[in-house]
From TrEMBL:
DNA bind region: 32-51
Coiled coil location: none
Keyword Transmembrane helix: no
Entry-linked InterPro entries: Homeodomain-like_sf, HTH_TetR, Tet_transcr_reg_TetR-rel_C_sf, TetR_C
Start and end residues of each HTH tetR-type domain: 9-69
Domain of life of the native organism: Bacteria
Record keywords: DNA-binding, Transcription, Transcription regulation
The name this protein goes by in its record: AcrR family transcriptional regulator
Matches recorded under Pfam families: TetR_C_13 (PF16925), TetR_N (PF00440)
Species name: Mucilaginibacter pocheonensis
Length: 200
């Protein structure tokens, strides 16, 4: 029985990993069942034997993609020696949203939020949860930087966190839609200026 469960889990993971880039590029509505069967080499019955429906696969794919980005950021934050550098990790990581280390298709938060905004409440909620977690993480880093004497006191951490997220995600959107990565470079300079402003 244990072997069967581990095999089922391996199959689920294979489906998620194999289709994660498709969902991230095409979105939920744009991804067809034939996209999933073609990518995985599995039958419709095999996919729906492991997931209730396409939405469940899409949610698992989003969670997989967003976890990849989160791990990438966490690893670099851990290495950064100052709170300023820890905050700037977000700009550095998202600057490379087209690289091989990022999920295929770019930023899963932006892609899913735009794709699911008016069409899929479950995916929209998942994207919202990731944004709110991101906001909390930034606020905690700023607060820790204040305690460490690295940042000024009296900072509106929520305002800074939301501004950073809006700049980064907006910069990615502008770079993608115009095909000009240099626009993201300019936006990320503003993120740097924003964080530098409250350094002691």
């Amino acid at each position: 029985m244990e072997n069967e469960l581990s095999k089922a889990e391996r199959t689920r993971q294979f489906i998620v990993e194999t289709t994660s880039g498709i969902f991230n590029k095409k979105g939920y509505a744009g991804t067809s069942l034939s996209d999933l069967t073609e990518a995985t080499g599995l039958t419709k019955g095999s996919i729906y034997g492991n997931f209730k429906n396409k939405e469940e696969v899409a949610v698992a794919a989003f969670e997989y993609n967003s976890a990849r980005v989160r791990k990438l950021i966490a690893a670099q934050i851990e290495k950064a020696p100052t709170y300023y550098e820890k905050l700037m990790v977000y700009a550095k990581v998202y600057h490379s949203f087209n690289s091989a280390s990022f999920p295929d298709g770019g930023c899963p938060i932006l892609n899913t939020a735009v794709d699911a905004d008016d069409t899929n409440p479950l995916l929209k909620n998942k994207a919202a949860q990731v944004v709110l977690r991101w906001k909390k993480n930034i606020e905690e880093l700023i607060s820790a930087g204040v305690v460490a004497g690295e940042f000024k006191t009296g900072i509106d951490t929520e305002k800074i966190a939301l501004s950073m997220i809006a700049l980064i995600e907006g910069g990615i959107m502008i770079a993608k839609v115009t095909g000009k990565p240099v626009y993201l470079d300019e936006v990320l300079k503003t993120v740097n200026a924003l964080v530098t402003e409250f350094k002691v």
